[in-house]
Amino acid sequence: MFENEIKAYALKNAIEFGKADAGRILPKLFNHGLDRKDIGKIMPTIQEIVNEVNSMPKGDREEEYDELKAYVKEHEEKEKDLPELPNAVDGKVVTRLPPEPSKYLHAGHALGFLLNYIYAQRYNGKCLLRFEDANPEKVSQEYVDMDLDDIENYLGIKPASIRFVSDDMPLLYKHAETLIKKGKAYMCFCSQEKMRDFRHAGKECECRRQSNDENMSEWNAFLKGKYNEGAATLRFKGNMQDQNQVLRDPVIFRSVHARHFRQGEKYKVWPMYDFYNPIEDGLMKVTHILRTNEFDQRVPLQDAIKDILGLPKQTVVQYGRFNVIDDSTEAKAKGREIRALVESGKYIGWDDPRLVTLKALRRRGIKKEVFYELVKQLGLSKKEANIDFDMLAAISRKIIDKDTKRYYFVANPVPLSIKQSTESAKIKSVSLPVHPDSKETREIKLGELYISAEDKKENAGKETRLLHLYNIEMPKRGPNAEVTGIENKQIPKIQWVSGHVPAKIFMPDATWIEGYAEEAVKDLKLGDVIQFERFGFVKLDKITKGTYEFWFTHQ
Ligand SMILES: [Zn+2]
Hints:
Elements: H1 3-17, H2 22-30, H3 39-54, H4 58-68, E1 94-97, H5 107-122, E2 126-131, H6 141-154, E3 162-164, H7 169-181, E4 185-188, H8 192-201, H9 212-223, E5 233-236, E6 251-255, E7 269-271, H10 273-283, E8 288-292, H11 299-309, E9 315-319, E10 322-325, H12 335-343, H13 358-364, H14 368-378, E11 385-388, H15 389-400, E12 406-407, E13 409-411, E14 413-419, E15 429-433, E16 441-445, E17 449-452, H16 453-459, E18 463-466, E19 471-473, E20 480-485, E21 493-494, E22 497-498, E23 500-506, E24 512-518, E25 529-532, E26 536-544, E27 547-554
Parallel strand pairs: 1-2, 2-3, 8-9, 10-11, 12-25, 14-20, 18-21, 23-27
Antiparallel strand pairs: 4-5, 5-6, 6-7, 13-24, 14-17, 15-16, 17-22, 18-19, 19-20, 23-24, 25-26, 26-27
The structure holds zinc ion (ZN).
Zinc ion binds next to loops.
């Protein structure tokens, strides 16, 4: 509990004062929802982390703090913003989002897309969406639809236009022919193994010596489907001895006979990423490419292709990649394996709460503002950033806590019968604030009371406060309890309901917690995010036969 927050404060403390101090960290945790009754439980963790931080070399502290600072809640925290973009002219900036519609989108994609989108907006430019659907075996309409829904309806990105690489095949073929005519591309009939070995050894194969005419006639036969998959390729004539192996005559077209979801069986020959990418960027008049630095090695190849074909160059801004870390072991599985889990029914869908897909985050109630804020915090740092659900939750909490309505929910409800022996026991109704900072209240009529079985067991025999109501002596067994007073003292405080609706909450591990929610939840609309006090934030997902079904957002 709160490990990341504790570590962030301990590191900040150590950087500012030379040494972290447990006493300085504890009060900060109340801003993150730490309950006073849990102080005893959390102190050993704080002490342990403080010791760890104090024994760390000084240089490491700053680096670690950089990764964790999103967890720190400080009033003096300055509003951060993204740095200026090099070579940006107001009204002229064009950026692009280039998803391959072959996989689900996760938080890392969202951040990359938003960087491109936010910069285009900042300079009153355009952000274009390009589906890179040049791999017929992997791409599908299902992913196009899913990606569009995530990009437009969840992230709120409005692309100026949408384009598919596969619609430009005739043009891509034309550029390939230009390369062949200039002697800068050749047909190769070597096996994959031979090609790999030769590229590795820096040796040229015999195909490289064919004349331009021979290459052109083989290329035409290639396009007509003369060669089976793997039997022939078109290669860019680079330099087989270049230090950068990407330049050692890479394949730029290969034969794929699989049916394409958009083009059907029209094309048997498909381009590789490094070939279509510079052409498409030129075609779309992109001015700025913001991307992760994994592409470093490929830049010289793409530049060489641009030079030969006379295509414009863009300003490339590189940033460190976003690693999306998922705690659950199953979700460590990537793309295809997740697909198998979804298709076998083991996961409920791409929005299974065990995943960090955008679909799952959206259904759980993570708002798009969380990604906009995270983009600002990470900026264009060259360092890789690890993003996990806790980080998203910490930002989300900061955004929604101040105006999210709070309600009561009791898990595994058991009845509580109040003996009408005192005046305070005879209260007929009570108004509760919907948020500590708000004057808005909800009125609750007192009738049959329910509390959670866990709260009852934990506090049996002890004086306990029913929040905003009165204090009781918690019965050890049976429902009968007596009111002991109405003053708010330092005793355990628990939620209760009187007048209730059946409710259940879908947890991050895909299990349900059932109980009763107070009747005020009837005023909620589907999709509303609220907080169940001492339980966490939840989003109303649907109502089935009178049962309110929520998804757990985060604590
Ligand atoms: Zn060859």
